[in-house]
Fold this sequence. Notes:
By secondary structure, the protein is an alpha+beta fold.
Amino acid sequence: MHFYLATSFIFPRSLRLRLFAICFVATHLPLLCYIGWGAATGRLALGEVVALTLATMVGMALALHGIGALLAPIQALAETFDTKAGDGTSLPRVGDVIQTLYAGVHRAATVTQAQIDELAIAAQEDPLTGLANRRGFLAHIAALPSAQRKGCVALVDIDFFKQVNDMLGHDEGDRVLAAFADRLAGQVRRADMVARWGGEEFAIFFRNGLEDEASWALARLAEQMRHEPIGRVNGRVISFSAGLSRWQGGPVEEALTAADRALYDAKQAGRDRICRAGGALPAPCP
């Protein structure tokens, strides 16, 4: 492609004339050298010059014919391509085979990159809730600067969610999950992150947040869930339990493990409550 662009000053609108010029110079170079040497030494023979000229012309004609035959199948595909690259930039006319191929390759590369980007996003996003999944959550935290790798992490679980699926159906279960995800996302700051950890369990990272602040945010959500329920099962408002742990910049898995233990404590204590790692903080009473 660099050579192609470098020769664009030679018949810029015609690939065939450009090939002709290059083949002419290449095949006649020995003849031109011979003429120059003969003129300098006085040994130039007209008959030899004519014979060599005819021979090089025949060789050039054969070379052009062979090149044309090789390019013919590609030329036949030229009309199938646009004259626009994938990013909308204009390209020269369709008749130029090389630029046509460039347009096709550019378009294919653009589409492929877009598909790769979509797959990368899909691999880190939960399709039901639109939140990050577990992989996306951990990748987001791993990408943070060291100064921002601290705060609080929480694991949140919808209480008695199996009953929602068993008694109300999976469609209602999906609706409850999506509604709860929206509630969680609405209770955190822009700097924080909410993810669907798996099933009916969610993870929250309160960046640089204090335990009291994180607990209050979850308590406000618990209160909202009681007064503006996202659903009921067995006549009971759908609630949640949560485990909360501080994270001071070490391996985040350690803080998540502590939050998981606190979540277990909240479940064992009767659900519908928030427990801190190392101590329980009951959710506000209805």
